[in-house]
Design a protein that fits this description.
Helix 3 (54-69) crosses helix 4 and helix 8 (235-257) runs parallel beside helix 9. Strand 4 (78-82), helix 4 and strand 5 (114-117) form a beta-alpha-beta unit. The protein has helices at 20-27, 33-40, 54-69, 93-100, 123-136, 162-165, 226-229, 235-257, 274-284, 295-298, 305-315; strands at residues 3-12, 17-19, 44-46, 78-82, 114-117, 142-149, 171-180, 185-193, 201-202, 232-233, 266-269, 324-331, 335-342. The protein has eleven helices and 13 strands. The radius of gyration is 20 Å and the shape is globular. The chain folds into two domains: 3-182, 3-Layer(aba) Sandwich (Peroxisomal Thiolase, Chain A, domain 1), CATH 3.40.47.10; 186-199 and 231-342, 3-Layer(aba) Sandwich (Peroxisomal Thiolase, Chain A, domain 1). The chain is α/β, with parallel strands linked by helices and 343 residues long. It has a five-stranded mixed sheet, sandwiched between helices. A four-stranded mixed sheet has the order 8-13-12-11, with helices on both faces. Strands 2-3 form a two-stranded antiparallel ribbon. 48% of the residues are buried. Bound molecules: acetyl coenzyme *A. Acetyl coenzyme *A binds next to helix 2, helix 6, helix 8, helix 9 and strand 12.
Length: 343
Amino acid sequence: MRNAFISGVGGHVPPRVVTNDDLVADYGVETSDEWIQKRTGIQSRRFAEAGVGNADLALPAAQKAIAQAGIKAADLDMIVYATLSPDHCFPGSGVLLAEKLGLCEGAGASFTPAMDIRNQCSGFVYGLGTASSMVKSGACEHVLVVGSEVHSAALDLSGRGRTVSSLFGDGAGAAVVSATDEDRGIQYWKCGADGRYAHVLAQKIWDISKRPFIPQDGDGNGIVAPEMMFANMDGRTVFRHAVERMCFAVISACTASGITGDDVDLYLFHQANMRINQYVAKQLGVPEHKLIHNIDRYGNTTAATIPLLMAEAVETGRLKPGMTVACVAFGSGFTWGSALVRW
Ligand code: ACO
């Protein structure tokens, strides 16, 4: 039977480390290390330098994943690119990455199709599901799934925005999903969405129903008010729904696959908040040794959290062939998703 397995993973974070104290000292955020650590578990995050775009950050992650898969970039049949911080409104960052990977010129130009997924924190799991289906159907042999975010450019570092701006960091992760006849790979995936909560965590920038869609001054220059320009979040509502949806997603994945939580060797939870993940783990009875985190070092890197965890787990030997891995994510939309992978 044709299966879809993860043949290579890679991660990349920008070099600049910004601690909680740096947020106060260098950026003037009215916060404290104690407040952030106590509520979120975050100690530091990475910020990209000006001039580094989303696809720039994704490139090294993608190259590592492609190398680990033992293929060339031109062997990719598709790029699925998850981000909430694309380089531009359009075109998507997937095509920018394709160009950077060298897929668009020269004798071997493959003009590999690239599409962006706009599903925020659960974007990578949506991408994994899409890639798995494309490979299992026979439409593709190798699909590159990317999660990449440059949050630092669009954080409201004033007192008004501190609840959100304390949480997020920059980073990118990538995985190659490839065809195999072996009994391994993405065994199950399921995603969900509840648009009734679309307003609870959103960064609108504009309202396309309005004329003009962005207010303009007398000279025709766009004026974006802070409440439209930056992300707004009702943190408590997000917290409550994240816990419920993530628990349910894990239980559904195990039930549908005929296994129990005890059969899972490693849980890769989306890294929104250490407290959310501790709560979910407690509800599900997941022991600490089956969990890995990066929120303490990277903050919430949204679509990149899970592939970054995967890349680190492979690199450190925590994730080995034969292990059963549960990936679970929840975020803006609300959207969520889970995937069970036999590594
Ligand atoms: N530093 C210092 N004080 C702060 C900060 C900050 N960074 N942010 C908020 N405060 C203050 C508020 O102004 C408020 O002060 P007040 O009581 O004087 O008015 C007080 O702290 C409490 O504010 P709340 O927003 O009620 O804080 P809460 O205890 O709910 O914690 C948090 C906020 C950490 C965001 C929490 O709601 C949470 O964990 N929510 C989950 C949402 C999440 O993790 N989102 C991540 C993105 S979504 C995703 O990836 C799933």
